[in-house]
Design brief:
alpha+beta, 7-stranded antiparallel sheet, 2 helices, 27% strand
């Protein structure tokens, strides 16, 4: 289990670095958490300026299905889809050497009831050493409510983003 936990930590550190390097005006804080164990799964948390949080949690989930990324970044109210899509866009731009491939995935029993197994709910990453890590997306809204529209639709990933 030791190597898997280290690999998870490396993956989470890369994702944390990407979210920080993104310079998205909606992101207030990014941090990793957890021990990378079954009892304390590791993850990366992204806190927005309204106090809401989105998470990518390294945890197994059976039945992932690859899905296409939405044309536009989903709004804050759709936190799970937003964090998953943003992660994929950042990975596509930075192409971290630690990773061999990545894909946006839907997961069974997760997502809106009318779109389960077809709505982005996480990111599957194949590392350079062949290890695969699934980052399942979760979100917790802010106390003030999350906008139904993206407040920064013109935001672009910084050119030359690296981790």
């Amino acid at each position: 289990m030791g190597r898997v936990a280290v690999q998870q930590a490396e993956v989470l550190d890369v994702m944390k670095g990407l979210f920080e390097a993104a310079q998205h005006p909606d992101i207030a804080e990014v941090y990793t958490y957890g021990a990378g164990t079954k009892e304390s799964p590791g993850g990366v948390a992204v806190k927005d300026v309204r106090g809401g949080k989105m998470f990518l949690v390294a945890s197994p989930w059976k039945g992932e299905t690859p899905v296409d990324a939405p044309e536009i970044l989903p709004p804050p109210r759709q936190g799970v889809q937003r964090i998953s899509t943003l992660a994929i866009r950042l990975l596509d731009a930075a192409k971290p050497a630690l990773f061999q491939a990545w894909r946006l995935v839907a997961l069974p029993d997760l997502g809106p009831t009318d779109a389960r197994s077809v709505t982005p709910a996480g990111v599957s990453i194949k590392c350079a050493d062949g290890t695969t890590v699934l980052l399942r997306a979760m979100s917790g809204g802010s106390q003030t409510g999350d906008p139904a529209e993206d407040l920064h639709p013109d935001w672009q990933i910084p050119a030359g983003i690296v981790v």
